[in-house]
Each structure stands twice: as C-alpha cells, then as structure tokens.
Write a structure and sequence with these properties.
heterodimer; A: about 250 residues; B: about 270 residues; alpha/beta; 7 helices; globular
C-alpha cells in the first residue's frame, strides 16, 4: 500500500470513530457527562488553553520529562557500554539491575516522594529511573553483539580504545540503542503521569487527578489526548533522528 | 636488507589445562623486497592468516621478530594496511565513508580525506557508487571498497588475507587481473594469502609454500613468468609446471592434515573405561 493511501485509510477510521462518538454522546445514547463528545472536548480544550491552565501545567510536566529523559539517554548509553565491555562489573551488577528493571517503576513513586518531596524533582527522578534501564540494557545487548569484523577493521588502522568505541561500537549498536530509547520513552511517560497523579502540586497528571475526582470526562479526555499526542511526537522525532543517522539497520547485514 | 623481514617468527597458543602449547608457526624466515608481490599458499590450518596478523601487529609472536625497514613492528600502523576475506566493511557507512575510515582515525581534515578517498574509489572503478551502502553492492564490489580503503592510507605494505576467497571463481580471476593493474602502477609491497594455487602463481613474484601444523616454510618458489599477465596465462606451459610443482609439495601436507583430522575425530569413539 502506498503512503498516501495508507494515510487516507488511517484517517478514515479516525473520522468514522469521531462521528460515531459525537452521535452517541450528543444524543445522550450514553450519558454525555460520562463519555462527552468531540465538539464538547474541543470546547474544553479551547477553554483550558485560553485560561492558561493547560499551558502552565504542560510546561511543568514537559520540563520534568526533559530533565529526566535526556540524562537517562546519556547515562544509559554510557553505563550500557561499560557493562558490556567490563565483564566483572557485569557479573557483579546483573542480578541487581535485572531486579530493579523488572520491578514496576511506579512502585518506587512513594519512596521517591519521601526522599525528594512532592515537588518536581521526585518526578525527574522517576522519569530518569523509568527510562535508564531499558536504554542501558538494550545498549549492553547491542554492544555485546557487535560483529567482530567491524572491530577488526577499525583496529587494523591503528584505532585506540576510545576510537574503537566511537567508530565501531556505538554506531554498530545504534539500532539496539534506539530501540532502548523508544522503550524508555514509553516507560518514562507512564511513570511521570502516575507520579504526578499520586502526589503533586502541578502538572498534567495532577490535572487528571483533580478533574477525575470532580468526574469531569471532557477535561480528562483532553488531557489524555495531549499526552498521547506528546508521545506520538516524541516517537516521530526519534524516527527522524534515526533516519538522519543513515539507513543502517541490523537486518541489512 | 629486505623491506619486510620475518625473522625466525614463531607463534604458540598455550593450553593451560594440559600444560602444553599448540605451535601454529614454527621459526618462519622470510624477507620480502620493496615492491615485491609475494603470495603465501598452504593447507588450511597452516597458520598463514596468523602470520599476516603478526605482520600487521594485531597479534604478537611468541618468538622471533617482524621488521619493516629494519624496525620491529610493535602495533598496527599506517605503513601496513589489511584487506580481509570477509571485507570487514562498516554497514552503516557509505562506500565513501568506508574508504575514509583509515584517514579519519588519523584525524585528517574532512575535505582532505574525502579527496583522497575519491581518488582510490575511482582507481577501483566505483566512482558511481560513492553513496551506496555495502549491502547494496556485490561481493566483488565490496572487496574493491576494501582494497580502496587499504590503499587510501598510503601504506608501504599491503597485507591481503584471502581477499578473493569469498568471491565466485570468475569474479576471482577478474579481480586478480585488476589487482595486478593497480599494483603495477605504484608497486607496493604485497603479501597475499591464498589457498588457491592458481591464484598464488598468477599473482606472485615468489610463492611461499607452507606446511600444516606447525606452519613452516616448505619452499620458496620464484615465479619467472612475464608481466603484465593476461588471464590466458593460466594455460601457458610454464604456468602449468609451477602449478604441478606446488601441488606436489602440498599434496602430502593436505593428506597428512586430513589423516590428522580423521584420527582426531575418531578419538571420542574409543570407549571410556
């Protein structure tokens, strides 16, 4: 199927869904205060934007996300490479790291709130912890599966250990690292919103919490859509970074 | 003094469990003159690839020394460049970027290294494929990238480890002719490993025939055939005589290595008491 045709078919299903939802909600076939309907959601969105409530809360959430996610990429890749290259360290830390990785990060929220307070910093830590493990573990796997000829080629030209890392190991494991970042992205968003819902003063999660205790379906739907769009934009950004880095994919070799 | 001197070089792999060691190379002596094309032929497992790794200094000998221009080689350097049987190209780099690799590792400015890389890409006939990725090229084209990459660093010695071993028979012969053309331009010193006797004779000024386990130099055969050498040289009576002479030397080696493998395989069949 061509790209444009796929777009048309995809859009058709969305439009059909919106029409059905509008019909069911507006005609009160299901109580509209429970499910709302698209035009009302749109009105709520405009209202929340106009009052500045959505913008100021989204800014807080976005800042927490960036402050946690960017370091998790940097340190996730560094730790992943080190773990892959230093065998004793890997053997030492593997059980611990696997245990932390397997535990749902939202279970850490209460203790982080105790440690770092109800402010933004505990959310930054949640984002960091949620994202760093999949990034680190994927990087480690990618690095340990580097093909021997790549290392041999780089070494044969007299590359030092750092050049082996930058010219062969990192680009060679980039597909695995990008997959790790995508996994980390999803986990970070879940962790962040959950943490804000649990205890917070501001943020999108906090708004969801407030409006859900007031049973305001329209507002909640607006917020969920905002989060979904944010996630989609992040994935699209990652994909464009990936494309810019070349058409290298491990399945081509 | 020869350009490249291999002086009593041995390589042993220790076996800690049995407190013995496996001798891969036994006191190899060989001098390669500047601009000489030397091929090394021997049965599999004769340590010929290991010898090349020692010259490249990607591995260290357990005895003897390798000297280039009288100086021992301690680590990989721009004076020697390798071409591998598996090409060893980086799949995320284009042809141009792959050829630039050696110069890039030496921190040459991008414009400068690009110009040099382009020159060698043109020399191996891949001018129109600069922006292609390795997976978009045939095996023969990939190895031309490997050769351009090795030449681009301006090495004194080209070390080729069965470079055409992964190519089919026709492509192999054409690549051999092309390699000779390139070599005849600037006469680099070349050490070329192969297990193909025809290829060894066709390319060489001298053929080094090696024995299997431990690897020793059986005989050094100067090839007195005119250059430039056309593909049809293979039917020349002189060529045929060289082929037979080397095959006679190697036949016993190949048979004995087969026997050795057979008895080795048979060992677990003996019932344990």
């Amino acid at each position: 199927m061509t790209l444009s045709r796929r777009l048309v078919v995809g859009a058709a299903s969305v439009v059909a869904f919106l029409i059905l939802w509008q019909f069911v909600g507006q005609r009160e076939i299901v109580r509209s205060d429970l499910i709302s309907y698209p035009t009302e959601v749109l009105g709520t969105f405009i209202h929340l934007t106009a009052t500045g409530e959505l913008g100021s809360n989204a800014a807080v959430t976005l800042q927490e996300f960036v402050e946690g996610f960017v370091p998790s990429i940097v340190f996730g890749i560094i730790f992943g490479v080190v773990l892959a290259l230093v065998k004793p360290l890997r053997e030492l830390l593997d059980p611990l790291l696997t245990a932390i990785y397997t535990a749902p990060t939202i279970a850490f929220i209460p203790i982080f709130v105790v440690w770092f307070g109800v402010g933004t910093f505990s959310k930054v830590v949640i984002v960091f912890i949620s994202a760093i493990f999949p990034i680190m573990i994927n990087t480690r796997v990618g690095v340990s599966e580097i093909a021997e000829p790549w290392l041999r080629a780089v070494r044969s030209f007299g590359a030092g250990q750092l050049q082996v890392v930058t010219k062969a190991i990192l680009p060679g494991s980039m597909p695995a690292i990008m997959a790790g970042i995508r996994l980390g992205l999803g986990r970070a968003i879940v962790g962040l919103i959950a943490a804000e819902m649990y205890v917070s003063i501001t943020g999108i999660g906090r708004m969801i919490q407030v409006y859900s205790s007031a049973a305001r379906a329209s507002e909640i739907i607006v917020l969920v859509v905002v989060i979904a769009v944010f996630g989609y934009v992040c994935v699209a950004l990652l994909r464009s970074v990936e494309n810019r880095m070349g058409t290298w994919r491990s399945d081509l070799e | 003094m020869a350009h490249l001197e291999i002086d009593h070089v041995s390589l042993a792999y220790p076996n800690a469990r049995e407190k013995t060691s496996f001798l891969a190379l036994d006191a190899i002596d060989l001098g390669v003159e500047r601009g000489e094309f030397v091929t090394i032929v021997g049965p599999s497992g004769c340590g010929k690839s290991s010898l090349l790794m020692l010259i490249a200094a990607l591995q260290q000998p357990t005895g003897g020394s390798v000297r280039l221009n009288g100086k021992p080689v301690a680590k990989p350097g721009p004076d020697r460049a390798l071409v591998f049987q598996d090409f060893a190209l980086l799949p995320w780099r284009t042809v141009l970027q792959n050829v630039e690799l050696g110069l890039e590792l030496r921190h040459m400015a991008p414009d400068e290294r690009r110009a040099i890389a382009r020159k060698y890409i043109a020399m191996v006939g891949l001018r129109d494929f600069e922006r292609h990725f390795p997976h978009q090229l045939s095996g023969g084209m990939r190895q031309r990238v490997g050769i351009a990459r090795a030449l681009s660093v301006g090495p004194e010695v080209l070390l080729m480890d069965e470079p055409f071993g992964a190519l089919d028979a026709q492509i192999r012969q054409v690549m051999a002719v092309e390699l000779l053309k390139i070599w005849e331009r600037d006469r680099k010193t070349i050490v070329f490993i192969t297990h193909d006797i025809d290829e060894a004779v066709f390319l060489a000024d001298r053929v080094i025939v090696m024995s299997a386990s431990p690897g020793r130099v059986l005989e050094i055969i100067p090839v007195d055939l005119p250059r430039p050498r056309p593909l049809t040289l293979r039917n020349h009576p002189g060529f045929v005589a060289y082929r037979e002479r080397i095959w006679n030397l190697l036949e016993d080696e190949v048979r004995s290595s087969l026997n050795w493998q057979a008895s080795d395989d048979a060992a677990p069949m003996v019932p344990a008491l």
